Amino acid sequence: xxxxxxxxxxxxxxxxxxxxxxxxxxxxxxxxxxxxxxxxxxxxxxxxxxxxxxxxxxxxxxxxxxxxxxxxxxxxxxxxxxxxxxxxxxxxxxxxxxxxxxxxxxxxxxxxxxxxxxxxxxxxxxxxxxxxxxxxxxxxxxxxxxxxxxxxxxxxxxxxxxxxxxxxxxxxxxxxxxxxxxxxxxxxxxxxxxxxxxxxxxxxxxxxxx
Length: 210
Fold this sequence. Notes:
Distance between the termini: 22 Å
Mean pLDDT: 93
Shape: globular
Strand content: 25-35%
Oligomer: single chain
Strand order of the largest sheet: 1-2-3-4-5-6-8-7
Low-confidence stretches: 1-10
Radius of gyration: 17 Å
Number of helices: 7
């Protein structure tokens, strides 16, 4: 599909994405207020699993007041409808197993954004993260109207490094002390794709070939 510049009002939310080309079938959908019990359970069960990769506030930053899950969902929806983000939960077999987000979306001459995700420890090793990220990227380059998406990964996050390798993202080098993660400023390796890199193919097709 040839890339076309985004036009105001072209992007629509909510968006639901599905892939059943492999097992297990996965669904990307917006979080709902009635997901609270399940989401809190999954996050609680995975607190230690995701802590090394979670953003934290640097020393001296003003503490953020805690928000309810209802407000959290509303905030995600506001960001999505304002065309600043595309936030999905990852669902397998009717259960939430993680999240994948496109965020930091910039339009005008740039047409770019970044992607990030987390996955339930019990769902790893099945290609779910790879396919979920591929679905999100294909939407970004298609109906989402983006030209470039980057993914920034800690140098010691071996699982995520393998994900972007499978999807063929271009290695753009190390950003020193790029994000405050797990209590300190951490170096990240930056990976990216543009529409031209796909040459008419899809990111999901790349994942099936890896």
